[in-house]
Amino acid sequence: GIGIREVLLMNGCPGGETKCIVGVEECHGPVDCGLGRPISENSKSVVMSCIYIPPENRFKYVWKILAPNKTAHILPNDSAVMEVRRDTHPITYQCETQGNESVIASVKYTVHATTEHQTKQSGRIETGQSRKKRADAILVFCLVTGIIFTLGVIFAIIFIILHW
């Protein structure tokens, strides 16, 4: 839902704290608001990050591929940041941040397929172009209206001077 989501770390906080906030995000999507935002993405790949606080080597990271009604597939990557290539279908990844053999934070990413990403990009471009066309039409309308008004005022002044 719309609101704020705090990302809490339940173990491994500095200064012996039992809980610490490692991030605050605005939630505009689904009620669970459990999806992360990639560090970077382009038409071919996506770079994702686990939840951590420096130094990142104090935690263990477990990356998984999630599939509906199937057991999660654990990936060999154990770093805090992972780059993946886009596939022909969307894939959901999850990173669990672990400390003392327990999960202390988790984040999910949905990496859209190459064609979906291109469709979204072209939709954004088309929306931008239609906005530009609309702005151009408004500008032309204002310009023509201004010219007609100015000519009307000039003719009115000439008419007044001639009949004075």
UniProtKB/TrEMBL annotation:
Keywords: Membrane, Transmembrane, Transmembrane helix. GO terms for biological process: acrosome assembly. InterPro entries: SPACA1. The chain crosses the membrane at residues 138-162. GO terms for cellular component: acrosomal membrane. This is SACA1 protein.
